[in-house]
TrEMBL record:
Binding site for S-adenosyl-L-methionine: 278, 328, 377
An example Gene Ontology molecular-function term: RNA binding
Originating species: Propithecus coquereli (Coquerel's sifaka)
Encoding gene, per UniProt annotation: TRMT2B
SUPFAM superfamilies in UniProt: S-adenosyl-L-methionine-dependent methyltransferases
PANTHER family xref list: TRNA (URACIL-5-)-METHYLTRANSFERASE, TRNA (URACIL-5-)-METHYLTRANSFERASE HOMOLOG B
Name used for this protein in its record: tRNA (uracil(54)-C(5))-methyltransferase
């Protein structure tokens, strides 16, 4: 259900939030049974469109009044049944196929393939892991059958495996055991352009020996069997760590175009090999439209786009706001955002490179008198505590939209810090936020994962 956004029935959303610990013990508020001062109206006022506690309170008040039978409103005919169906199952008039219009198979625009021993014991197998290192039972299995991986990604992985099995160099399965060839990342766009990024552990190879390997790889994908992949670009990264940024170890373009481009919400967006971009393009459009609707930006507001990646959220809303200020750690992504703004003629956006906990306090010093709306889209690790504290203590920020790909874990901690009563020991001095809505958007069909968009106000 890529990108499907539903007006979820209250009981289903409460169930979902309970699963991630928001309303159950030991969840977001394990002390809920004690009803601490300020919390009932502070946080639990709502978790979707509609006020849970207000509705419950009204029901209780009604129940405490007279137990009179309801007045007669007419015969129980089909119209009442349709009205009930419209409330409880608002999509009942649409076929399920119509509900699932966005792409639900092969939707990933980025896939990362590992190299390890396959079921047959061959260490030069390209695919995805089964098992764990802790249990010592890792097996690398080809991904041709996975519904979320596009054929093009599988094709590139297949030819990379052919290349590895022809190469005299061994793969790097464990750093301390040596080996060279490592993972493959494939990025594609809706026009079918394909970028491949191959990671390589240089070990003790000289620069001359490295050049030989890069040239061999290049020839394989230009003139050899790999030419069938029709790559738009091929990158090579020397990495001695599990993950390396472009700043730590530059991506080396072996051939082709340095970037791929995507059309999203009327914008032409540039994407570098290291830049974050939502892995489901059709779903991302729905996600960003949801963010725009919830944020309520207008010409009087300044939008803070925190952890902005390639800047698409801010850029897509720039025409509706007075200014957009984006913050992103990855330098390549910021360069992409600036290029996208210039190419699309957007002049009211600024993008800053660095850690949000360092950049945000500096930006806010000159914005205290502005009407600010903040959007945060952090990685799975959630927001740094200093970022939460800065947002919480900035009186000018009255609306916050929080996009989470992992609603439990660190996001739960972030929500507690945003919504708890003032706490001088933690330097959370600003007025607490209230969770008003939570809208799930399915970016990951065939998996249990879902993006969840929270709207906080104060």
């Amino acid at each position: 259900m890529a990108g499907i956004k539903r007006k979820v029935p209250v009981h289903r959303l409460r169930c979902f939030l309970s699963m991630v610990g928001f309303f159950s013990e030991p969840g977001l508020f394990p002390w809920c049974a004690r009803k601490p001062p300020g919390w009932s109206q502070l946080f639990l006022s709502t978790a979707c469109k509609g006020n849970f506690t207000h509705m419950i309170a009204k029901k209780c008040q009604k129940g405490q009044k007279s137990q009179k039978e309801p007045s007669h409103l007419g015969p129980l005919d089909g119209s009442w049944q349709e009205r009930l169906a419209d409330v409880v199952t608002p999509l009942w008039r649409m076929s399920y196929e119509e509900q699932l219009k966005p792409v639900i198979s092969g939707y990933r625009n980025k896939s990362t393939f590992s190299v390890n021993r396959g079921p047959d014991g061959n260490p030069k197998t390209v695919g995805y892991y089964l098992g764990t290192r802790r249990d010592g039972n890792i097996v690398c299995v080809q991904s041709k059958h996975l519904k979320n991986i596009p054929e093009k990604h599988n094709q590139v992985a297949q030819y990379y495996e052919i290349f590895l099995r022809q190469s005299p160099l061994e793969p790097c399965l464990l750093f301390h055991e040596g080996g060279y060839w490592r993972e493959l990342t494939v990025r594609t766009n809706s026009q079918g352009h394909t970028m491949a990024i191959i990671t390589f552990h240089p070990q003790e190879l000289s620069q001359e020996e490295l050049c030989v390997q890069k040239e061999t790889l290049k020839e394989f994908f230009i003139k050899g069997p790999g030419a069938a992949c029709d790559l738009t670009s091929l990158y090579f990264q020397e990495s001695t760590m599990t993950r390396c940024s472009h700043q730590q170890s530059p991506y080396q373009l072996l051939f082709g175009e340095p970037h791929i481009f995507e059309d999203l919400l009327g914008l032409k967006v540039r994407i570098s090999p290291d830049a974050f971009f939502q892995i489901n393009t059709a779903g991302a459009e729905m996600l960003y439209q949801t963010v725009g609707e919830l944020s309520g930006v207008n010409s009087d507001t300044v939008l803070l786009d925190i952890c902005c990646g390639t800047g698409v959220i801010g850029l897509s809303l720039a025409q509706h706001t007075s200014q957009v200020l984006g913050i992103e750690l990855v330098e390549q992504a910021v360069e992409d955002a600036r290029w996208t703004a210039a190419f699309n003629g957007i002049t009211n956006c600024e993008f800053h490179t660095g850690r949000a906990e360092t950049i945000l306090p500096q930006l806010l010093k000159s914005k205290e008198d502005e009407k600010l709306i903040a959007v945060v889209n952090p990685a799975r690790a959630g927001l740094h505590y200093k970022v939460v504290r800065t947002i919480r203590n900035c009186r000018a920020i009255r609306t916050l939209v929080f996009v989470s790909c992992k609603p439990h874990g660190e996001t739960t901690r972030n929500v507690i810090e945003l919504c708890c009563p003032p706490n001088s020991a933690k330097k959370l001095l600003g007025k607490p936020f209230v969770l008003r809505q939570a809208v799930p958007v399915d970016l990951f069909p065939h998996t249990p994962h879902c993006e969840l968009v929270f709207l906080f106000t104060r």
